[in-house]
Prior knowledge:
Shape: rod-shaped
Radius of gyration: 41 Å
Strand content: under 5%
Number of helices: 3
Distance between the termini: 118 Å
Helix content: 55-70%
Number of strands: 0
Order of helices and strands: HHH
Largest sheet: none
Amino acid sequence: MKRLSILASGLLMISGVLTSCRDTSEKEVIVREVEVEKKAEAPVEEEKEGILERTAKEVDKEVNKEIDEEIEKIGDDN
């Protein structure tokens, strides 16, 4: 019986030591909202596009005009 009481008291002491040594501090999370203001610049398409893109747009306009003229000619025959 003496051994059982010593063993029980030893287990209680060990469990007490292990639970009391735990780190229970909580971490704080800080969230900051920041507004960033940017200067609005006027988009300049010519600077963003190369010479090939600008030339292709001009050619597309001319081709579309020719296609529209052909459609009008076909529409007049009816």
